Amino acid sequence: MSDSAGDRRGGRPCPVCETPLYRRHCKYVCPHHGVVYDCSDPF
Q1: Which residue pairs from 10-15 have beta carbons closer than 8 angstroms and sit at least 24 positions apart in sequence?
Q2: b/e for 11-43, b at 16 or more Cβ within 10 A?
Q3: Is 16 helix (H, G, I), strand (E, B) or coil?
Q4: DSSP 8-state code for residue 8
Q5: Is the pLDDT of residue 32 over 80?
Q6: Overall pTM surpassing 0.85 (yes/no)
Q7: Closest residue by Cα to residue 11 from 1, 24, 33, 2
Q8: Contacts of 22 (CB under 8 A, 6+ apart)
Q9: Distance, CA of 14 to CA of 2 (rounded, Å)
Q10: How far is 13 from 34, CA to CA, in rounded Å?
Q11: What confidence category does residue 18 fall into, taking pLDDT thresholds of 50, 70 and 90?
């Protein structure tokens, strides 16, 4: 399995550029801006 096998795209958009975020473990990652949300952030 590759490292990206657990990544899921879609759901929340990036608050900066509106690109769909990747979910990686307990973080939401924008391909352009890096981690923008963490599990500890309130939604």
Answers
A1: 12/37
A2: eeebeeeeeebbbeeebbbbeeeeebbeeeeee
A3: coil
A4: E
A5: yes
A6: no
A7: 24
A8: 7, 8, 9, 28, 29, 30, 31
A9: 24
A10: 13
A11: very high
* pLDDT of the residue at 3: 45
End-to-end CA distance of the chain: 31
With contact defined as beta carbons under 8 Å apart, do 3 and 24 qualify?
no
How many Å apart are CA 43 and CA 31, to the nearest integer? 20
- Residue 5's pLDDT is 44
- Residue 19 CA, chain-centre distance (Å), reads 10
Q: In the chain, where are the structural domains located?
A: 7-38
